[in-house]
Amino acid sequence: MTTARIIGSLLGVVFTVLGVWGGQRLIEQRTPGLVWKTLTVLLLIAASAVGILVPVPPLPIVNESIRNLFFHVPMWFSMITVLLVSVWYSILYLRAPSTRLDVLAHESVKTGIVLGLLGLATGSMWARFTWGAWWTPDPRLNGAAVAMLIYGAYLVLRGSFRDEQQRARVSAIYNIFAFAAAIPLLFVLPRLSGPSLHPGQTGNPGFSQYDLDNTMRMVFYPAVIGWILFAFWLTQVSSRFAFLKLQHDEN
After folding, report:
1. CB–CB of 88/228 below 8 Å?
2. In a domain, 22, yes or no
3. Is residue 56 part of a domain?
4. Among 116, 120, 223, 232, which one has the highest count of C-beta atoms within 10 angstroms of its own C-beta?
5. What is the pLDDT of residues 148-192, one digit of tens each?
6. pTM surpassing 0.85?
7. Rounded to 5 degrees, what are φ and ψ at 50?
8. Count of domains for the chain
9. Is 143 part of any domain?
């Protein structure tokens, strides 16, 4: 492993820790949070508008569809981040059970599922224009679909319990193992399966000069930040609604 890759891996760990810590603080923030919410709106609008207008590399096959990179990939990044936040809430719940932590973990998972479904939808559209089919037996595509089914089972599992404490405890344990299963399905097993059409696989590298030049990077990375902040914002809103509903039921 080269020095650049080691530094990149360390930076990835640092950004992941900061993302979980920052996401937890933003989700639980009680102030209006106008600064980061305004930043979220500006980043998403700018990434969408500039992403349509900015010149992209004239690549064969993908052509103009490469602009989907500004939407499809950030959705997956934001999904992974908010699901990791949900795992952290589940761990905290198992250490010190509370309704608050259970609700936060549940709402974070719901946000992750929404973003995952959007990622599958945009990926399917991209496949239709580049591969000629809405879906192919590609390892990464199938792994992503299985990961979403695993998290769909999480929602079914929660609905099968009537006892609130039992539901919360089992859901927390399942959520941790669901994330542990999703990561290999999304990143490990596809790389071990051999050549693939999907960028980032063996023989088809992603995030290289071939499919991401400097101009696109100036749009792509702000889009990633914007979608991650949007995931936290969506989770914050849904969590507040869930707390209000609980308060109403108690009264």
Report:
1. no
2. no
3. yes
4. 232
5. 999 999 999 998 998 999 999 999 999 999 999 999 998 887 777
6. yes
7. -65, -35
8. 1
9. yes
